[in-house]
Design a protein that fits this description.
2 domains, 535 residues, mainly alpha
């Protein structure tokens, strides 16, 4: 399989490909194209929405189920890990069942899992159903990309990717706003129930348009060992990241044991997949330079982006007194510039070097994070909204050029596997980014809290004046000290968030150099597009 990667990536699909394969069929047109695009976009929207809709609802979910907000973040990470593990299976499942049948089955199962999430009576049950939801959601995004690319003429591949990217941009924006409003005005289970009508409509419309465009199937043996190793190392790594801060990291025997499991399982996974005749993950794709560079850039970029998307509403609600709705509103403006710019990027991506567009994206993200690094506890909502608005330009120039680089030089039959693997990197990075960001936030806050407390001695004029004022107002000594400590907490977590924002900006600046390791492209990606020196 590794050998085939170097001989087929730069030539068109074989002439003997079955006539019923989407690559051999003419593109859709008219109402069929419009309905097909809408159906695939709705399914993608629903999927991506569920990666962010729970972000602002975590405090409410945690309170309702009697757990801490830190434990509540498992509602986010459990979905992400399960989704990430199932994504690489897309290539094998597609060959076994066909793109259309797999996409519709995935969508219907997602609806069922969403309904169960809304019914969950405890955190354990909710995490279980979120794992199920993430697992069945895996094939949806890569297959939506593949079906969209097969629906449009090759010269409009950039526009097809733009339509897909718009849904992935709008959903994370709509998620916090919608999730916040539902949590404040109805109840948190409805953030999952709303998937039911959307998913059913998307599944019915997709079947109506695409059921005659099914891909050929084959009884390909399943790589059970590879799948088992994938589950072990990804799952163990996520548990390590989530439990590390509670168990004092490598001072804990549990964490050390988990780290050993991760290393051994990961190395064994690499060796097995590179030597297996029918691997569950086609690692030969990493023999293509553009795929490797774009996937690594996507991994780090999305991990930083999503980790901060989770951090901001947690900070606003826990230490700035914001409601879930208002915290969602603070994140919403990212969609304004994104929606305006994304169609334009889709039209020019085949004429402008994608590396240049990604450079603009990373520079904008760096600027946004540097701006946020200057926040303080007196920041007004207007101050918070400005970098979020600018961030829309970075988001609009992020997905499409990286997807174009990722899929460059690949024939249509390899797109589901490549898309699945790159999305595995993206979703895994989002889940790991959430755990790493919240862990660092707590650790840095503890450090800043200790430093601030050292200054609040009896000889500190500001501290003495504050306590005297509280005592004069009739507040008992214990309550006045508790109030002062809460003020210190707010400052400590603000300073910690500033640290994370600043370092995130530095990493985005460094990643600009990474993008330019990719080869320049001479034609649009997808469906046999080529890139100079793709190998």
């Amino acid at each position: 399989m590794a050998g085939s990667a170097t001989t087929t990536a730069d030539r068109p699909p074989p002439v003997s490909a079955p006539a019923r394969a989407p690559a051999a069929l003419p593109p859709l047109s008219g109402s069929q194209l419009a309905i097909g695009t809408l159906a695939l976009s709705l399914a993608t929207f629903m999927n991506v929405l569920d990666t962010s809709i729970a972000n602002v609802s975590i405090p409410a979910i945690a309170g309702d189920l009697g757990v801490s907000p830190d434990q509540g973040t498992w509602v986010i990470t459990s979905f992400g890990v399960a989704n990430a593990i199932s994504l690489p299976l897309t290539g094998w499942l597609t060959r076994r069942f066909g793109q259309v049948r797999l996409f519709i089955a995935s969508t219907v199962l997602f609806v069922i899992a969403s309904f169960l999430c809304g019914l969950a009576p405890s955190l354990s049950a909710l995490i279980l159903f979120r794992v199920l939801q993430g697992a069945v959601a895996g094939p949806m995004i890569p297959l939506s990309q593949s079906l969209l690319l097969a629906s449009y003429p090759k010269e409009r591949a950039g526009m097809a990717l733009a339509m897909w990217a718009m849904t992935t941009l709008v959903a994370p924006v709509a998620g916090p706003v919608l999730g916040g409003w539902i949590t404040d005005n109805i109840s948190w289970p409805w953030i999952f129930y709303i998937n039911v009508p959307v998913g059913i409509g998307a599944a019915l419309a997709t079947w109506a348009i695409y059921h005659r465009r099914e891909t050929p199937t084959a009884r390909v043996p399943v790589d059970a060992v590879g799948l088992g190793l994938l589950v072990i190392w990804v799952g163990a790594l996520q548990i390590l990241l989530d439990k590390g801060k509670d168990l004092d990291w490598f001072n804990s025997g549990t964490i050390i044991a988990l780290a050993c499991v991760v290393v051994v399982a990961f190395l064994t996974f690499l060796v097995w997949e590179l030597t297996e005749e029918h691997p569950i993950v086609d690692l030969s794709l990493f023999g293509l330079r553009n795929f490797t560079v774009a996937t690594v850039a996507l991994l780090f970029g999305y991990g930083l982006y999503f980790g901060n998307v989770v951090l901001i509403p947690l900070w606003l609600q826990q230490y700035m007194g914001y409601t879930a709705t208002l915290a969602g509103v603070v994140l919403a403006p990212v969609g304004l510039l994104a929606l305006l710019i994304t169609p334009f990027i889709g039209r020019i991506v085949h004429r402008v070097d994608p590396r240049l567009i990604v450079t603009v994206s990373f520079a904008v993200f760096a600027l946004v994070f540097f701006m946020r690094a200057g926040f303080n506890t007196n920041a007004t909502i207007g101050t918070l909204l400005v970098p979020t608005l600018i961030q829309g330009a970075g988001a609009a120039t992020f997905f499409i050029p990286l997807l174009t680089l990722t899929l460059s030089g690949l024939p249509p039959e390899r797109i589901p596997a490549a898309s699945g693997l790159s999305n595995f990197a993206r979703i895994t990075a989002g889940s790991f980014g959430t755990s790493i960001t919240t862990t660092l936030w707590d650790r840095r806050a503890t450090l800043h809290h200790a430093q601030l407390i050292e200054r609040l001695t009896s000889g500190n004029p500001a501290a003495a004046q504050t306590l005297a004022g509280l005592h004069a107002g009739g507040m008992p000594q214990d309550q006045s000290y508790a109030l002062l400590n809460s003020l210190v907490d707010a400052q400590a977590y603000m300073l910690s968030a500033n640290d994370i924002f600043y370092v995130s900006g530095l990493i985005f600046i460094a990643m600009i150099a990474l993008v330019w390791l990719a080869h320049p492209m001479h034609s649009p990606a997808g469906g046999g597009a080529s890139a100079s020196g793709a190998h």
